[in-house]
DNA sequence: CCGTATCCGGAGGGATACTG
DNA sequence: CAGTATCCCTCCGGATACGG
């Protein structure tokens, strides 16, 4: 699979690979919420907030595919479906919390740097930079 | 700012925020490479491989804006520009390595789950699922 | 209640050409 | 060498409507 056995510090390609998995708009939020125990579809939908049913379905399917969550169907009427983190999903959650801690710890510093940068950009060197990137 | 003061375990919004910063296609790769010491523009371009100069510029600008890398210009001819991780960038790199370690440790398990899922999808329940999500 | 199918706008990102 | 500007196309993701 690899064209050559390149071997950078933390095996860059693998990191990028998992980041593509988890770096989308909703996966992490869903995993975090599932960290509080199994949830039903619409329950999850309400808690996450702002996600469309389409995106929730796709996100859950992706997580299920990668063995991070399980999907349990109860063939009742009305139907009931539970989603739950697997062991793999739990371990991912822990790792993601590490990133979360970093984010919380350094959030202010990042925001400050951002303001500084934006201030200089729209300043005196004539190149009217318009970066109003409100994350 | 927030419509309501929701407050999930690891402050979900902040995690998502930083993930939007780092979860794009190239940021992590650039940060990892910069972890090996300061690099020049085209040097970085070669090492990363597959990135366009447009994207490298945008990625570096973004990282610079957030205070993760510094940009040093030497007004020589031909011009020379060095990019280097800041302290903040280094600490991010460490955190990302945590995720990287997880990715490496669980890569096989994920790939296995993926194959299993794909096998069942194109199989016997008739609903031709076509999710070839190749990261 | 739990999805799937379709439509569609907009952001992401590659290729290329030009500048200092 | 180190960028910037433009074009263009793909895919993400929201809205809506329908099926089991």
Automatic annotation (TrEMBL), chains A, B:
Q: Does the keyword Translocase apply?
A: no
**Keyword terms of this UniProt record:** DNA-binding, Transcription, Transcription regulation
Give the residue range of the signal peptide: none
Q: Where is the HTH hxlR-type domain?
A: 12-111
| Gene Ontology MF terms | DNA binding
**Which superkingdom, per the lineage?**
Bacteria
Q: Which InterPro entries match?
A: HTH_HxlR (IPR002577), WH-like_DNA-bd_sf (IPR036388), WH_DNA-bd_sf (IPR036390)
Name the PROSITE patterns on file. HTH_HXLR
Which PANTHER family has this protein been placed in?
TRANSCRIPTIONAL REGULATOR, MARR FAMILY, TRANSCRIPTIONAL REGULATORY PROTEIN
Q: What is this protein called?
A: Helix-turn-helix transcriptional regulator
UniProt source species: Microvirga mediterraneensis
